[in-house]
Structures
1.
Amino acid sequence: MTAAGFDSQVGYALESPSGTYTAPTRALEHVSSSLKLEMDRITSKGIKAGRRHQGRWFPGGQRVKGNVVHELSPINTGLLLRTMMGAVSSSGSGPYTHVYTPGALTQTNTLTVQVGTPSVNGTVNPFSFTGCHIMGATISSKAGEVAMIDTEFYGQHLDVGQSLTAASYSSTWAPFTFLHGVLSIAGSEYEFDDVTLTYKNALRTDRHVHRSTTPARPLTSLESGFREWTATVNSDFHSMTALNRAIAGTEAAFSLVFTSGANTLTFAGNVRSDVDSPTPDGPETLKQSLPLVFLSTTSDAAAMTITQATTEATP
Amino acid sequence: MKIQYNGASAVDVPGHDDVQPGAVIDVADEVGASLLAAGTAYPDDGAPIAPSAPLWRVPAAKKAATPTETAEAGKDTP
């Protein structure tokens, strides 16, 4: 029996304590994973008379880097959203409402990501990446396609000595498509072709230090800088309204809502529009690109809050 | 082996779709052991730490039926 990519799986668990392999509690249908262990090699600079090749080297620091791409669903993505944003508050009972706001990305916000990686001998090999923080994410939706979430991870270690955890998927998982997405800017619906939300967590990584325990692994990443949420909305050039707002420097409310039955996922905040004016460079109808930056002088949550209404009690 | 699902919403696991909260399913031992361990932390230098609210557990064994005494009990069978 051989095994191929269709046998692969991605599972997640919130770590406690941080950096400790924790057997996955849920699996998410994935599109791709590029998570990898990077191991530095340290080469000696010593010269030995008459030797033309340097033969001495040592193992160096290590880290985990890469992205995991999932289709965006209102189900089973709460763990990613919570780990990405830092804070969550939950209320209600079937459907439950989980509100994700910018909060501390502490040592309680690391994940074990286990990627079941098939080899042709028929084995699905568990690659268990530990101490993984979400560095950032890209959420996108394009007309005619499924909405996507692409999460960028930075982790501490690849543990290849653990067992593969049987994949446990949500039975009700289903992704949003472009049919489910509606965008409002400044309180009015804005018809669009595609939208891309980009998030960066500004974590300080590669914290390798001299220490007695696992010195090859970096220390847990730390918050170090301002977080950034931006968006780009591409559409027909509807009118001068959006461009005038950008030129005037008028901030506006932004709300991207995906609705599927009783499940909703809302990205809402306050945006500044940067100026990108349309140009007639051919006979076709003109297009407009809106570069948006999320910000607020009121609060971090007013800049960006993600709200999920779902049948799941736990994010 | 038989295992019981303690999660809050239905899941699909190898060999079983739409497993509802509280349901008991029969799975291969390897799958069962793996699911029972979900959420367990394995420190490099210590004993495994079980999750405070395990998603799966071995269902409680049914109480053995108590033999019923009858008037015929103890009599020799002709």
2.
Amino acid sequence: MNSLETILRQLRRAAARARAASYAVHGLVAAGAWIAAVLVIARLVPFERRAEVAAIGVPVAAALVVLAWSLRRPSAPLLMALADIRLGLKERLSTAWERRAEAGPMDGALRQDALRHAAGASLVRAFPVRVNRGEASLVAVLTIFALGLALLPNPMDRVLAQRQADRASQARAAKVVTDAQKKVAASDKPNPQVEKILQDTQAKIREAASPRKALESITPAEQQLQRLTDPGTPALNSSAQNLANALSGTAAGRGAAQAISSSPAKGAQAVRDLASQLQTLSPKDREELAKALAKASQQAQNAPMRDSLSKAASSLQSGDTSAAAQSLNDVASQLDSLQAQQNTDQAVASAINGLEAARQELAAQADRDAKGQAANGTAGASASASASASASGNGNGNGTGNGTGNGNGNGNGNGNGTGTGGGSTGGTGGTGSQGSGTGSGSGASSTERVYVPGQPVPGQSENDPTPLGPGQDVPLSPFSQVIQAYQQAALDATDQSLIPGSERDLVRQYFSQLGEQTQGAR
Amino acid sequence: MIAEEPRIDATKVTELAQALEAELARLIVGQKELVRDTVIALIAGGHVLLEGVPGLGKTVLVRSLGQVLSMSFARVQFTPDLMPADIVGTNVIGETDGRREFRYQAGPLFANLVLADEINRATPKTQSALLEAMQERTVTVGTQTRSLPSPFFVLATQNPIELEGTYPLPEAQLDRFFFKILVPFPSEHDLLEIARRTTGESTPQLEPVADGGAVLAAQRIAREVPIAEHVLAYAARVIAATHPDRSELDSVRRYVRWGASPRGMQTLVLAGKVRALLEGRYNVAFDDLNAVARPALRHRIFLQFEAEADGITTDRLISELLEHTVKEPARD
């Protein structure tokens, strides 16, 4: 006959098994519910790490179940009482266990009676391993539901893919900017200010919420870079070139002319050498040099350079070689200044090139995003507009541009761009930075017809009457009938303008997108 | 392994009950539950109110019980003109050695076994006189209180019909009864057996099988039966559930005016202990409490008039609350 402790051990083991099965099913229900909930949420909002979050529910549920299983172990009195009830032992075990330390008149008989009846019963049957049918059904339902959610296409996948593409695009753009920064740093004359601007910009691009937001950080950076350049540099450069041209015709100044043409720094050194050799020149060479300097002075657009050249020429003609040498040294100093400014301009140009490349990358991704949204049929429309400006020739170039974007509906965006350009030999065209803009509008339904001023393209349907605009005498035509004319006019304008090819591609892309929407509306 | 011998021979109680039941069965046909409940009340030391229509053998049962127990037996026929002095006794003038003096003449309550036949026909005054005797086991005459013999066992009968000119027992008096046992109408088979036994040439003569000492010993043993805490808690839940302000049962809340008193709890537990012994167990089980719940509680639960109108009985309510009261102990 077993002792009460032995009976208790057997009951504990049986109860532990039964509870383990029960808690396992609880855990499956919890895990299934968690996974289903995560998958449902992932269909309502973009949820990138849904697989990981859903999967983590399984070990968490298992841990919680094990914790609950270990913490909620039934006490000995409870085990005995449940065994009594389930095995029909008429409360013999629980009473005997409760009075196991008592020595009352009937306690001995009670214990013997309890042990005798327990020996005749199968204690394991008190705690059978049984799975609740309702819970098992719930697990099956949750499993099927979760599988269905996992296997059926998720509309949020496209959004997630776009986000990933956005991040990759921003990373590429930021890398381009970083490369530009490294290039500036690796040059002979690194410019800390330019490097700082590029560094800040690449950080903003990387941290921006979207390519469109990242684009907004480029224009201010370009404006900051442009403020580093000196507007007087082209005039000074032109004056230096004129000086080189003038000196090239003299025997004494030919070397200096070549040096100036080579670089302002070398030219400055050559001019200083020339100044130190003035006393050794023959009177004929001095006169020839004085004429060349006077000619260069007349052509100089930079006032200090003009003054220095004029003084040098007059001093040389009057035979005051020391004053002429002093004036030539001033010219050399201005050439040094020109060299420094050119270095800065080169760094700025390199930086702007990097930013432009980043802009191309981001703008392309923003366009793809807009197309994706249009394909999704979202009512809210977003549009991006880019504008470019250019300036050519010597001097400064400024440009402004406006753009209109169209999502699934109509949206308007405005952008502004400014640009400067400088040329060393006759001038090169400047490139204006792109403007950026955002727009919003409500999408037109497929049956709605949009009218704009213009004449239909021949061959288009003219069955519909052409209304006049309110308060106008301009005939209005359906948007779909004039889009081709608009596109052709825009492309012709871009072909005739000195704008980069990539900008023309943007215009073409914009109109082709409008054309697709027009066909879709039909 | 625990090898202990019981210090009390509880089997003596079982043997006493079996002997009583067997001897009574010679005369009482069927009615096993009635006899079992009466024996439980006897061993628990409680009084019994038997209710049944005339002719069901209530008086025969009590008289037979007096025969099988070697104890003094008295029968009092309660009538409206019965006075308290008629049952508790009175002081009468007697003459001793030429001197006249008042002498106490004990009433019929001074017996071990008292049959109060048709108790509801006596006036409340007389019923109240019985009240002290049942609860305190003493009677007071004049200024002197006298103890009643031990054991003292009152079996009262009442007729649920013919209520004209009766005085229903008040709640306080009803609560003094350990059990209220309903005497059922015998089955057809039992009727045949009754006819055979009682209409022949001779009727069975019962023999005494126990005396007052055996009954008192059994009463002491019964009180030693252990009851587990969760079983005791179950009894408390059952009692609490009879109260309309504590019960979760709609029927109790709707039909019950007053629930069982704490004395009902005592009765439930004590009767459960006796029944456990009679079932050969040394502990009280839920089944014991359930088995004695109806006779222990049916006269302690007082119904609203609405219950009478709807035909609701206390037995039905007790069955319902026993069915809904949780047995499993709460988790720690």
